[in-house]
Amino acid sequence: MPTAALSNPLAQLCDSSGFRGRNATASASAQLITLSPVAVLPSEACNQIIPQMTVVPSMVCGTSVGGGCEGDIGNPLVCNPQSTPVLEGLLTRFNNCGVILVVPEVYT
User: Fold this and answer.
1) Residue 100: closest CA among 3, 34, 15, 23
2) Which CATH superfamily is domain 9-107 in?
3) N or C, where is the chain less crowded by C-beta within 10 Å?
4) What InterPro entries has UniProt attached to this entry (predicted)?
5) DSSP line for the chain
6) pTM surpassing 0.85?
């Protein structure tokens, strides 16, 4: 996996896949894997939005509709620069389970 941040994070729209429960009480055995677009944010923006966590350049932070939820930790973030898919990180922190918020997810 890459050890540095994306070269141009503001221009990146990546994808994350997983079961993405709709809320914290959703069934742990979701039936379908979903693919969600993730808008990548610069680490400085994430540090302002999530002051209790320091997002360093080796982490990738982004927002998605619905966001991650219980059971989604470890979901992959794949970006597609120059038509070559690259695994950029794995989900390590998610927002409020399916609620559309501006709280980003963090991938390492």
Assistant:
1) 23
2) Trypsin-like serine proteases (2.40.10.10)
3) N
4) Peptidase_S1_PA, Peptidase_S1_PA_chymotrypsin, Trypsin_dom
5) --SS--SSGGG-EEEEEE---SSTTS-SS-S--EEEEEEEE-HHHHHHH-TTS---TTSEEEE-SS---TT-TT-EEEE-GGG--EEEEEEEE--STT---SPPEEE-
6) no
Angle at 57 between CA 51 and CA 61, to 5 degrees: 60
Query: pLDDT tens for residues 2-44?
Result: 444 455 555 588 998 887 655 555 555 566 788 888 889 988 8
**Could you tell me the maximum CA-CA distance found in the chain, to the nearest angstrom?**
39
